[in-house]
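go over both lines:
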Amino acid sequence: MNITKLDILAFASHPDDIELGCAGTIIAHIAAGKKVGIVDLTRGELGTRGTPEVRAAEAEAASKILGVTARENLGFADAFFQNDKEHQLRVVQAIRKYQPEIVLMNAVHDRHPDHGKGSSLVSDACFMAGLRMINTFGDDGEAQQPWRPKVVYHFIQDRLITPDFIVDVTPFWEQKMESIRAFRSQFYNPDDTSPNTYISSPEFLKFVEARALEFGHSIGVTYGEGFTKERHIGVRNLFDLI
């Protein structure tokens, strides 16, 4: 059976969502010895700048910077994918393939409708992946075993959402920014003559840093990444919350 067991699996509607939203958290956990993978739902083919092929190459470059164990793209239709049976089963296959303990996903709602839609799709699939009567098959054609992640968290993206918790990513900030800059077609590049977009201005990357500084400031560090939860977080020791 084809299983690549991961500690954390991060899903995103578009290539570069992960880098913007939770790259620092991913890098921090890889540095701590955890295995992390990424599944992009679409190729971002409707984006104003770049092409699916260019963005695939950029995602590969970003993956090397992050140090992830695996990254794949499900090839859903950008803007037109739905939270329906067909798409849910594809996400269930990915969850069962990688058997993560933790799943990260898009913001619950955001400026781009694909983000909230992808969030709902992955959240539903995380539950469904644990149902033994749902049959899926791996890349090798063998039946997959049920698997449900222990917890799911949503990273915060463009629109400000009050986080339930914030991860200190200060030691990994420059590496996060390097992974973002790997998407040269999407973000500020003075040598690129493509049409300007919401995220291609130099001010957008300043905004990304400002948001991280704000989150970091609120927990007494320099840079932070915020997340929301779907259920209460339990601890055995109050000092785990320090």
Remarks:
- The chain is about 35% helix and 15% strand.
- The first helix runs from residue 17 to 31.
- The chain has a mean pLDDT of 96.
